Amino acid sequence: MLADALGRPLRFIVTAGQAGDAPQAAALLEGQPGQAVLADKAYDSGALRATIAGMNAAAVIPSNRCRKIVIPHDVDTYKHRNRIERCFSRLKHFRRFATRYDRRTIHFTGFVHLAGAMIWLK
């Protein structure tokens, strides 16, 4: 999921339960403007950093432990990364989102659009 600076959802991609989130990051960022992209260590990859640099934005991503050359990040800006966590927290107030009762992806996707719109209105 991609959220703006206020923690409101902008884009999301539904994947299989066993799939990781990091491979979807470049697709979520495609065509989005911004000055910085904040993400956690799981998103630390050279390809994603190149995508962010192509957007003329700063990558505020801490380096993964296995990275040989540590890339510094802005610690003060990284403190705002919790806004995506707040976005998920607000979405999880909708029981249908939190438990994903919907078997079909299209039904779940439709509800995520509805719940995201309701969050924007608050």
TrEMBL record:
| A Pfam family annotated for this UniProt entry | DDE_Tnp_1
GO MF terms, alphabetically ordered: DNA binding; transposase activity
Q: Where is the Transposase IS4-like domain?
A: 4-108
Q: Which InterPro entries does the annotation name?
A: Transposase_11
Name the domain of life this protein comes from: Bacteria
| GO BP of this protein | DNA transposition
Tell me what this protein is called.
Answer: IS5 family transposase
> Which species is this record about?
Ancylobacter defluvii
Give the organism's phylogenetic lineage: Bacteria, Pseudomonadati, Pseudomonadota, Alphaproteobacteria, Hyphomicrobiales
